[in-house]
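Lab notebook, bench 4. The sequencing result for the construct came back, and we need a structural model before the next group meeting so we can plan mutations. Quick request posted to the team channel:

Model the 3D structure of this chain.
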Amino acid sequence: MKINDLIISYIEYRQSLGEKFRTNSTYLKAFSRAVGLQKEVKAVSSEEISCFLYGAGPVTSAWFAKYTALAGFYQYAVSRGFLDRSPMPMDMPKRPPAFLPYIYTRTELKLLFDTALTYQKNRSHIQPYMIRMLLLILYSTGLRLNEALSLTMKNINLSELIIKVEQTKFYKSRLVPFSSLLAKEIEAYLKWRKKQKFPQDLTAPFFYGRNKKSLNSATVEDIFLRIRKKAGIQRTDNARYQPRLHDLRHTFAVHRLMSWYQENANVQQLLPTLSVYMGHTYLSATSVYLTMTKDLLQEAGRRFENYARRNNNG
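Done. Here's the predicted structure in token form:
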């Protein structure tokens, strides 16, 4: 059995179970190309697998993602009788330091939104005003980038202040409420959008890119990089990555938690609500976004002090 044929069969099998399987699929196809599309499954050595896993650079979280993808594939190959045993290496490298997301301050957020209108050196088909609206929605609702780029006109309900996110990361749809402040921004954007003569039918993309199609995520990532650099926002904590577009989602979660602390709300009771709002299947997935920033620690400390003071007075 050719390695590429079996990998395609495995990907189709996983997708038939209801998984999108995008990341693992990408790694497996890259592995197939690396060892040779027409190579026999039994001919792939442990050394070739290690070479693919380690690549040329230092060990990062990608090593473990690739390992998971390959381990699943080889388990499938053994279970189907194409191999007697898995050739996966047994020795695991030390995991790199935990990734630290960047939490934008409110001043930095305003700077990003303002710079989005002026980032272009030369006028292009991507309108700065549209990019600003996209950034506002990403921060204000905590949507994933692909969720925002998949929105159509029918998904935005201004009268009820709700965005309907369809067929998300886990093949589920959800309703995402938004504030009246964001509603005013969206209303202005819709008027602008109409003046630009973009299609107004319900199935038309909310954000337009090239050739009258939805904006491409890679294009948006590149635009955001230019915006961030022009805004002068960068890390000073020696972290491996500079602030990313996806960090707007982390920032949304942290700011929401801070607001609850400031309102003396029952945070423990509200965390499951935040998890559902963000489209997570498990509460543990939401915890990844709740980075303990200095401000968040101060709010948590203030809450504990108030609790302790009440108990002492009692």
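The chain has a mean pLDDT of 86.
Will bring this to the meeting.
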